[in-house]
What we know:
22 helices, 52% helix
Amino acid sequence: MALVGPSPLLDTNPFAAVLGDLREERGATVPFPPGDTRFSLARTRRFANDPLPLLLDAYERFGPIFTLRVFHGNVVFMLGPAANHYITVSHAANFTWRESHFRDLIGLMGDGLLTIDGDFHRRSRLIMLPGFHRERIAASVDVMVDETSRALEELTAGDRIDLYTWTRRLALRIAMRALFGLDPDGETARAVDAAGLFEQALSFFSSEYALRMLRGPRTPWARLQQAARSLDRLIYAEISSRRASGERGEDILSLLLDASDEDGTTLTDLQIRDEVMTLMFAGHDTTTSTVAFMFHELAHHPEIVARLQAEQDSQLVDGLPTPSQLMSGELSELEMVFDETLRMYPPAWIGPRRSVEAFEFAGCSVPGRAFVNYSSWASHHLPDVFPEPDQFRPERFAPEAKAALPKGAYVPFGGGSRTCIGMRFGQLEIRTIATLLLSRFTLTLAEDFQLEIRQMPTISPRHGLPVVVHARSHLGAAQRSLAHSDSL
Ligand code: HEM
């Protein structure tokens, strides 16, 4: 059976989509969970600009399942370990992604793995999985080390840089080379500022809800489409040159070009484009934010930096990690810092879904066709699960403590059949960038910098991460002696 993609969403006109949502909401056969269900522009704005306090406040008042009216419609939120497990694992089949309130992402990514459901999702995932097997990921270490070392060469002590932008460009170069075998310095790639284009496309999701409804020239939607078209040129050029030359490598693009069904049907250029676009988006934005958030916290915790540097001193050879150290995550201090960063700032902070049938959870009914979300960000901030959740404490993820967490408590990579397919790749990349950066430099935040978080639709530092670069030996020596005295 040929791999046929889903039909387009019924209502691609945003006004028709809103009317359709309202009709379905009115036709609900069971009540929505309790919550704030009257229209409020202020709440809609808060949800777009600062959702975490809004969700935590509603959790306090209503418990693990509640409804908030956001823009035109009721949206159900389910928070906490049991809720995460319910949506992602035990009852995953009752939820679709495609018609969730993030459906506008289809305008950028098309029908790639993230935005599809059911049998098409299962079969597409089967095609992609070999590209993410351990040995394939291991083959990417060299590219990651090479690209990171090259990017570090550009830095000198005393520099002031935006670590977020620096990492974003690095992560895109790594994604291009390791995932798609694309030369970021080649003619086609150089003609396209992929990082800038993603920034432009995704800014759609940080614009006002009402503006997102508009179509036509100079609207946020037009900017998204324009950026998508430019990125398309890069992707289609590579697809056609690989088809023409027959050249294949160890990358995912090669895998997609050669994938075929039992009856010999291969993927169309459009299907390949959608998967590549999805992986480029999901594969650089999340890792970039994680690195930025990690170094934000480290800048506030020199005692943790000292522990990381002490670990490097005792375990790295000539200041360089081995591929197996990076793959296994055996630098245990770094691993805990990494886990705690993803607890406090999980970039893919919300799992958008739409219910298929009505269901019950924690004593509340939820209609079929309702917008339902889980949220790692809010779930990771519940004080009954993570005491003093605003404190950055890597020791929460010491092996025994991590093993004792309830099922579904910690879900930075989602769960079940939609668990992040790039998890190992992302982990390896972040370990590589963090280890090499820490082995060379210490970073302090630019004076007066205050972290503000935007969602677009992943979370990231709204104003980047301006830092000052210091040679490591300079600060490191003092800190290492501090770490030593701590351990006496
Ligand atoms: C720190 C890094 C990353 C984090 C925290 C992260 C997080 C997530 C989460 C939470 C989901 C599930 C979303 C949901 O349930 O709706 C997801 C899905 C996905 N991620 Fe990641 N991700 C990361 C890195 C990557 C990388 C590097 C890639 C690609 C190379 C990638 C590709 C994907 C794809 C394709 C999906 C959709 C999977 C499916 O539905 O079958 N991610 N990611």
